[in-house]
Amino acid sequence: MQQNYLWRSPEELVQIGFQRARVVMMNEAYNGLQRCIRTRQIGQRIIPTAHQCGVRYLAIEALDEHMAQLANHRRHLPQTPAGYLAQPEMRSFIQTALNHSWQLIAYESDTIAWLHDHYGVPLDANAEQLAPYLPELQSLRYTNWREAQQAHNLTTALAECSDEARMLVWCGNGHLSRATSNEWVPMGYHFAQHSPVPAFVIDQISTVMFDRQDALYAQTITSSFAEILQAHGGTAGFLAGERPPGVVRFSDADAIIVSLFNAME
After folding, report:
1. Residue 199 above 70 pLDDT?
2. Of 28, 49, 162, 235, which is least packed with CB atoms within 10 Å of its CB?
3. What backbone torsions phi and psi does residue 60 show, to the nearest 5 degrees?
4. Whole-model pTM?
């Protein structure tokens, strides 16, 4: 028999997260400009709950410092012609945070600074000057540096807030993981090692259909728990220690959200 008490809404998981920690990390699913829209819609949906929990800061991987400053000053996200910040559900998610008077925090690493330090690339390099170095940005050396810098930027931003400040950290894919994998050391691992403030981690991408194998797993989960998920509007989750029987594939997160809506678009 399916045990309904194990299943919780995303709002309940966020509320539990902020009862246990000042920082909650959640992820969205993307591959290039493809994304699982549901993951961003859930992000927008939980903002009122997070606000009631005292959250006033949204740290978001997709922002740069200039864009964050403009949005905080103007209280709306400036228009951008392409990329993540041009996608409507991402803009709606961020605008909802701004409408709740939250402050946006950019925590992405400075890629140009890394290229300057390692290859002497000018700090004001144009696209043509950067082009020869783009393959290097796929290297594990750069990736691990980027993950460490993101964690450093987050801990620095958190230290500049009050001791009671609560923050929602929004990242992509597996960056919030606290476990290393094949020499990859993700942001979540660095944050857990160096931040005096622990994070409560909510994974949203377990059933996202990145590839055929993921699609088969998603189909298994959604068919097994379709009734429960439908009763929750198509998306629900559980604490890691309360996972239902049969759900064996999950990250090292504190809570996991699964859904009927898993397509990449």
Report:
1. yes
2. 162
3. -130, 125
4. 0.94
